[in-house]
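Hello forum,

I keep getting stuck at the same step: I have a sequence, I want structure tokens, and every attempt I make locally crashes halfway through. Rather than fight my setup again tonight, could one of you with a working pipeline run this one for me? It's a single chain of 215 residues.
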Amino acid sequence: MSNENNITQKDNQGLTTKEAQKRLKEFGPNQIFRVAKISFWGIAKDEVTEPMILLLLVVGFFYSFWGKFGDAITIFTIIFLLVLAEVYNEFRAKKAIASLEKIAAPKTKVLRNGNITEINSEEVVPGDILILTQGTKVAADAKIKQSIGLQVDESALTGESFPLDKKYNDEIYAGTIVVSGEGQAEVFCTGKNTKFGKIATTLKEMKPPKTALQL
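Reply #2:
Ran it on my machine without issues. Output:
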């Protein structure tokens, strides 16, 4: 086993607080995106202003004005059901995107100033040494610098059902989970630049096909 594979806390003191703050300003917070508050009524308002819905509302209004209340009620019922279906689908899609944020670990342990310190995951920067133990949710993309029986569950990223062995210089990714063993890893990517960040950003930017109400 090489000396590199036996890195200890004494060999690597991690970043200093000053250097970490400098890198945080340079690279920005370890954050993929902030999900805007999802409002059911806000989505409903957007759907009601779709051209097709506005047209049906006008038609329903004129039927009411002409005294054809039966036809007007039918049109307004159709509008209600269409809007309800669209709002539900849109709300569910936005909730799914918002759930991606929960995959990220809120806290993580790193080596700073020679000491193991728990910090907010948003404060992790390239060059930080992550402390990995069973149950650790990996906060950023990193390369293994020390591994003792380390296995990582990457199913959140790859769908792979079996944990993968991770040895010296192997890469681990944000959003994955250590299922056994322990080790240390040096961060090389944070936030939107991580593998998970790129996937999440792509999903967020994808535009769904226009619905019948939007044509």
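The two ends are 64 Å apart (CA to CA). If your local run keeps crashing, start a new thread with the error log.
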